[in-house]
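Reviewer 2 asked us to include a model.

Predict the structure of this chain.
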Amino acid sequence: MSKELSPNAQASVSSLNNALENTLRLLSENMSSQLFPGGITKISVDIRIAGNTGITLDIEGPGSTSSHTGAASAAECAFFVLVSKSIDDLDLAPHAKVGAESLRQQFGSIVVFTSGRRSVDDQARVMAHNIVEKQDRQWIGKTYINGQELQKWVDDHPKAQTQEELEAGLLSVMNTWDETKLGNLSRHLTGAAFDMQPITSDKRKAVRDALDELPFVEANKILENESGVKVWHVPFTE
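Predicted model (structure tokens):
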């Protein structure tokens, strides 16, 4: 029989979840020589909140050759920041939320959502991060059908090299757009899309087929790889 958590226990879980999310976000944005200098291939991160509640993460860097499956790679951390969040936390628009709930009801915990609604700031940060991490200044043009203005900004500002510089520039462009234009760039900006961890188990075909059958899903726009980013992107009509 399940037992509801006490208010204190719920507060501890919420605090730990927030700490974990913030830690993974920082790791994902700095996974290079800043975290793994001088041949270091693995770090341990100990997250503690009030009392003795906490968790220890073993993070393997880009140069690691370890086959130890208990440690997450830094690259994986970049895309699974929202792993522990509920569907409600993803702040999805109605059609996308119905689809997410249907998947979770059919397949349970093997469905791991990694992204839902994004703010304009989040979108700028994600794009800037991918440009820098992949060392590809044409990444936006390759990834977004309606990203021409953003790609032009990158092309016109060759001196913008850091993630912070790129993020600020992309944000300055998107801040002039209305909601329709933002939605045409990415369904994430209106909450009408979610990303999920690719399914690699024997349930892969069943889950992938179920995606195509979700109500209001734009089945012809489902992506299993976004310009090198290993996520399943699932958009819906608004």
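The chain has three domains: 7-77, 88-117+186-235, 120-185. The first strand starts at residue 42 and ends at 48. We have added this to the supplementary material.
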